[in-house]
Predict the structure.
Amino acid sequence: MKSIHKNFIATLILGLLFSFFLPWWNVMVAAFVAGILFPLKKWLAFFTPFLAIFILWSFQTSIISASNDFILAKKIAQLLYVNNTILLIILTGIIGGLAAGLAGVYGKQFLNILKNQPQ
Amino acid sequence: MKLFKFLLSLIAVIAVFYALNNKFGDVPPLGHFLSPQTGFWQNEESDLPAETLSIEGLLDEVKVYYDDDLIPHVFAQNDADLYTAQGYITAQHRLWQMEFQTHAAAGRLSEIIGEKALNFDRTQRRKGMVYGAEQALAKMAQDPETMSLIDAYTNGVNNYINSLNPSKYPVEYKLLDYKPELWTPTKTALLLMYMTDMLAARDYDLEFTNTLRKFGKQNFDFLFPDFFDVNDPIIPKERDWSDINPVKVEVPFSELPKDAIANTFEKPDPNNGSNNWAVSAAKSVSGNPILANDPHLSLNIPSIWYVMQLATSERNTYGATLPGALGIVIGFNNDIAWGATNATRDVKDWYKITFKDSTRQSYLHDNQWKQVTYRTEIIKQRNADSYIDSVAYTHHGPVSYDSSFNTNNELVGYAMQWTAHIGGNNQRTLLELNKSKNYNDYKEAIKHFVAPAQNFAFVSREGDIALWIQGQFPNKWEGQGKFLMDGSNPEHDWQGFIPQEHNAHILNPERGFISSANQHPVDKSYPYYVFNDGYEAYRNRIINDFLRSKEKFDIEDFKNLQNNNFSLKASEALPTMLNYIDPNKLSAEQKRIFDEISNWNYLNNTNEVGTSIFETWFSKLYELMWDEFDSEAQALKKPFTYQTIYILNNYPDHEFMDIVDTPQKETAKELVHQSFIETVNTITDWQNKNGSYNWERYKATYVGHLLQGLPAFSRFNLPIGGNGDNVNATKKNHGPSWKMIVEMSNPPKAFGIYPGGQSGNPGSKYYDNLIDDWAAGNYRKIIFMQFPNEPEQPMNSQTLKPKN
């Protein structure tokens, strides 16, 4: 398995796991840890955790909301001026993904700094 | 380079964390708010009740059945459990509303929404809202039984709050980014104060003082008579008052202060009012008394009402509750039914206070300098330092207006005296009404009710019908409290109260019906002073005329009357208005509108264009007639609608018809003509912009979310007719907030509906599911379960168990 796959799966699983006991920033912790365990190069360090959490959050919210006919999602979409539940779900994915992506990059940079320390 | 990248990524992580973890302006903290696990997504659910719950403090099991509208039918084995369950279940559906309303009452909105609420909060504090709630709580605390039940209710609410995972906080908490705090008995008192402020805070003393000074006594009495020329009072004119030996108060020989201030507190909506009526067994088709009630309030969602059945083996009561208060407020049991309308009465007076010096530590009263006490009001503000306001209290009450609020003379203040500050055990009235079995129980129960005074309509299975106008009313000398009074003169003090048993009431009147619609409570023969400071003049006459029109009535008649859209106001004003228009002088467009209004039937139905034209026309005419009152320098009160139409019909050449700003002398004819031309312009502009101006579209009734009408959580453009002066008193954002009809068969047969839904969660299908039927004038047949039967149809059931 390539690092990119490992990082992707680790972010997903950790994100799911941490969500049971951490607030919303569980996705940042997940991506940070995955970034240390499975460092990726350049833009992949951002986009892999971004995609993992984008998929996780949009999938979870779609399931939750569909089971209630999107009643609240429609109203919140109006409230946040996105006016469309699909866009709201995408926005949710992007927000989670953005936080995770940056945390993933930071994880990698953190690892680099550690490696750089003189023994 | 590595260090640079490290720092850059660190900064980026911190920045995104900060940005998504905090609220900016009206944007909620997006990380929290959108997270699938903690965000609003967790509120995307339709209130399926858990099968069993354990609740601390319960003595026995409580069984709850939820019907198709999510109305809980609660069966407990003792009173304490019943009210614990009521607290828990209400909080389960209405927690945010319960807290928000009591925060509003207490002047604590700045804590939640910041500085923009500061003026509102200061106003609440200066009205003595918290002070009044404390007085009420002190009164309730003297009654151990009431207090123990309030404690049980509190415990129920707090069990729910404590069981709540933050991810399940109502969505408004997430939107505004704050947390619920624990419920307290003070909050129950604050909720009752919130209602009192809504219903018993209307007074025009300061406006009347300015109006009197500006126009003189003769004009004032002409514009504001103590009685209109028509009066169909709540207590029928036939009532003989010889059973009452009144306590007389003498009118003092003294001057009233002539000054008053420019800006006064915002008044509660003048439309806050209600209808209730009942027919006796003899006047009922089925031979059972029937009662109807519909309180008219702002159309808010979550609704002010939450419907419940509350039963133990000793009592079984159904009706509308106020989230935050115990028991049913308007409802019925197997033996009685009752309904309340607001008994508007002047129970708030103003006194001019003369301070000794600018330190304002003492004030003049009875030729002595008396000590001022100060109440420190600390208003916490979100993202800012607390605001501290010191409010002076005299023996009258809080000095609401002084040089730190709305005036600039350091030596003068204006103190409020208000029955809401007396403190009363209103909660006991509700608790006792719930279990009343007959007229005597009802009569005893309502005695504790101090403010807001209500017209309590009553029917019993035994066949009694009755109506008491209950509240604590100052016994005033003639004219007392109409205008600002002299706070230093002891003769201007309230001289005592009308003895409770002298409150106007009627039992089993000969006419076979009782009714009230916020009109004048009595005629001139009532031996205590009551003056008209804005009594409703139309709905009551339509209701009474209808109830006099036939021998016998049934539930269908009652429904039709509640949904009646006839405008008596229009029928009394429009003929005169039309008379003054010469159709030959109109343009084609004006002629078209003139024909439409000429052919109108006075019904404010959804499809009528006549209503839109009339209402626009009349309001423009009203403004033109009373242009003398347009003043920025001082608060004035324009005459009430009834008197306006009376003057229009009978005094077309009166000097008030003149438009002050024009050199020529106008009469009613010119005003009617001018306002009609303006109306045509307004209507055609509207039509060009929006299309058909039928009443449904022109009025555009909406039910607004309690948080400043948040559009996403509100319902707009409801297809409903009616207007403030119709029995169906539905205005743009105001109307029948709980429509109930009860026939005292065995068991009672009842219908009810309200513009909202049981759940306060905008994500629930029960959030607004009753609105469409409400707008259509439909009712839900009430499921009134008998104790301890199982439900006739399958229902979701829930067991509340004591926690070990």
About this structure: Residues 79-105 of chain B form the longest helix (27 residues). The radius of gyration of chain B is 28 Å. Chain B has 21 helices and 29 strands. Chain B touches chain A through 41 residues (CB under 8 Å).
